[in-house]
């Protein structure tokens, strides 16, 4: 079955530091990949997505590239801000129909950015 | 611009009590789902629905019931609350009932404590 493994946190950085959160996956076929962000006390919001190999998703300064050869979708940001403090989830969705309806989530990585 | 609305936001129950968590979406989405979020466990799928009158079990369905009488509403019922059901519950929806490569929209969650 499908699975997602992301680096365990918590991750603590100083403002303007470089961020990488690793995410690898196993899946059959050609899945789509997502990063969701959860700010304190809120639900999950879609941060970015990529639907095929070598696609780069980007939003709010965050980027992630769909690497089929390494089955990875690492999240990066060049200069983090205090407002980026949140929990980040990597997720996988199937491009095929049938019974594979659900998203598969990683366990989440807590990021804290200090001033 | 409501999106996915969950009520209540907070609830405290005693063991053995029953209650219903409400979820409504105004985007005419076919697919709706319930997750629970626990520390170190990520999000786990409880139940999902691909349309009015159609529901199915996710990873952790025991102790929960759902129904889908309309496209908009997808309530989650705890029949006899147990301390193990203390968690944060999220409802989510997406447009396609089949393809999980589309983003899901999440509510802000219900924080439930069972004493």
Task: Characterise the protein shown here.
The complex is a heterodimer of chains A (115) and B (115). Chain A is 0% helix and 49% strand. By secondary structure, chain A is mainly β. In chain A, strands 2, 5, 6, 10, 11 and 12 form a six-stranded mixed sheet that branches. Chain A is globular and about 45 Å long. The model of chain A has no long low-confidence stretch (mean pLDDT 91). Chain B is mostly beta strands and 115 residues long. Chain B has no helices and eleven strands. Chain B has strands at 4-7, 10-13, 19-25, 31-38, 42-51, 54-57, 64-66, 76-78, 87-94, 105-106, 110-114. In chain B, the strands form two sheets. In chain B, strands 2, 4, 5, 6, 9, 10 and 11 form a seven-stranded mixed sheet that branches. In chain B, strands 1-3-8-7 form a four-stranded antiparallel sheet, with no helix packed on it. In chain B, β5 (42-51) and β6 form a beta hairpin. The mean pLDDT of chain B is 92. Chain A binds chain B through residues 31-32, 34, 36, 41-46, 49, 51, 89, 93-98, 100-103, 105-108, and chain B through 4, 31, 33, 40-43, 45, 48, 50, 58, 90, 92, 97-104, 106-109.
